[in-house]
Specification:
Elements (H helix, E strand, L loop, with lengths): L3 H10 L4 E10 L9 E5 L4 E3 L4 H17 L3 E7 L1 H6 L6 E9 L5 H13 L2 E10 L10 E5 L4 E2 L6 H14 L3 E6 L6 E10 L3 E5 L3 H12 L3 E6 L15 E4 L18 E4 L7 H8 L6 E4 L3 H15 L3 H7 E2 L11 H16 L13 H15 L3
Parallel strand pairs: 11-12, 11-14, 12-13, 14-15, 15-16
Antiparallel strand pairs: 1-2, 1-5, 2-3, 4-5, 6-7, 6-10, 7-8, 9-10
Length: 383
């Protein structure tokens, strides 16, 4: 995936300029994410996307005007379902796009954005996108708010309100906007709040054929991938071009001191060859703060693993069932590796977006319920 902010920093470091377009508001089914951005270079080339189709052609034309005359511009596109289809879009709705020179980003704030995204932090970028007095947003109309509430930059006397709302946006991990008016002022400021978050890291234990499919789908879905293997021929860029890093271990029984420090946003997928090392990895992972732990396999194999670990660790099978997604993946009738990969990554996204899920039934785990029934049955017969 293109790291737009890193690209902006590199352009400005060269003393060059360009324009950046960002989707800053939407209504209806039109998509909006923190990655909905596009750079327009001075030579007219582009990198990134704000939705494709005729929308991007109009944005490109406005960006060229912004580069000639300066300032910033906000464009609104009303895409009915019919218009969306004719324009090459898959969704209808209203989309607002902010177009501004790259030089509107201060070097201090831009450096912090790149650093936080690279080092695994969490923050919010708040940008003024429109003013009720008609003036264009400028270089000083931004704040960078850290997780602890401290901030760089100021915005028109409404800093405290912006910091409070930024905490809500960071919790939801979804872009949002809100209008503020400073005390004693009659100028309303529309502010766009953008989460600055490292792509969630997924550790894939095992480099087999299923893992290759998982890596492809997870990369497209915006996850950062680390492959953990004990075979060098299965842990390399040729086999996994999507992976950001590899951990080559001597064996899966001794992972302490070899694995990176685990962050509470990290996720892990256990798919070792023939399930030989699943038990060792799950035992190691149990006391780590993984947001998601998933394991592939049949119900019989999974329950046997839990039974062995119950004896070794003193952790009940019920506790494993509550925490580990196994068999992992949403129930979509997946059969072949590509389908299994889609079901697994869909479950990763469900966990990642769980704060936004309105229907509690979507967070249900029928596979876990089925396993729990088998455990109860075993207990009745003394197994």
């Amino acid at each position: 995936m293109v790291d737009i902010y890193k690209e902006i920093q590199e352009i400005l470091d060269k003393g060059e300029d360009g324009a950046v377009a960002s989707v800053v508001a939407r209504k209806g089914s039109a998509p909006m994410s923190a990655d909905a951005k596009m750079i327009i270079y001075k030579d007219g080339s582009m990198k990134g996307t704000v939705g494709g189709g005729c929308l991007e052609a109009d944005v490109w034309a406005e960006a060229k005007r912004v580069l000639r005359k300066g300032g910033a511009a906000k464009m609104s596109f009303d895409l009915t379902e019919a218009e969306a289809g004719e324009s090459g879009h898959i969704c209808g709705g209203i989309v607002d796009v902010l177009i501004e020179p790259l030089s509107n980003y201060s070097s201090e704030i831009l450096s912090e954005i790149v650093r936080v995204r690279a080092e695994g932090g969490r923050a919010i970028l708040a940008s003024v996108i429109s003013r009720s007095d008609g003036k264009a947003a400028g270089p000083g109309d931004r704040m960078f708010i850290y997780r602890d509430g401290t901030a760089l930059g100021v915005i028109g006397g409404v800093e405290e309100e912006i910091v409070r709302f930024a905490a809500e946006v960071l919790h939801n991990e979804r872009p949002d906007n809100k209008t503020f008016t400073a005390p004693g002022s009659d100028v309303a400021l529309e502010v766009f709040f953008e989460p600055i978050i490292t792509r969630p890291t997924v550790y894939i234990f095992g480099g087999g054929h299923v893992s290759k499919h998982i890596a492809k789908v997870a990369d497209v879905a915006g996850f950062r991938l680390i492959i953990v293997e004990d075979r060098e021929s299965y842990a390399n860029k040729e086999r996994f071009p999507e992976a950001e890093d590899f951990v080559l271990v001597e064996d899966f029984e001794h992972l302490d001191g070899v694995m990176p420090e685990i962050d509470p946003t990290d996720m892990t997928i256990i798919v070792t060859r023939g399930h030989q090392y699943d038990e060792d990895i799950l035992q190691w992972a149990w006391d780590k703060p993984f947001r998601y732990m998933g394991m592939i396999g049949s119900r019989t194999k999974i329950l046997a693993t839990y039974r062995h670990l119950e004896e070794k660790m003193g952790v009940s099978r019920e506790e494993f069932i509550q925490r580990v997604r196994a068999p992992m993946g949403l129930e979509i009738g997946a059969d072949v590796p590509g389908e299994i990969a889609v079901s697994i990554v869909a479950e990763l996204l469900l966990v990642r977006r769980q704060n936004l899920i309105r229907d509690p039934e979507l967070m249900g785990r029928p596979k876990s319920a089925a396993l729990m029934k088998l455990v109860k049955k075993d207990q009745r017969v003394g197994v």
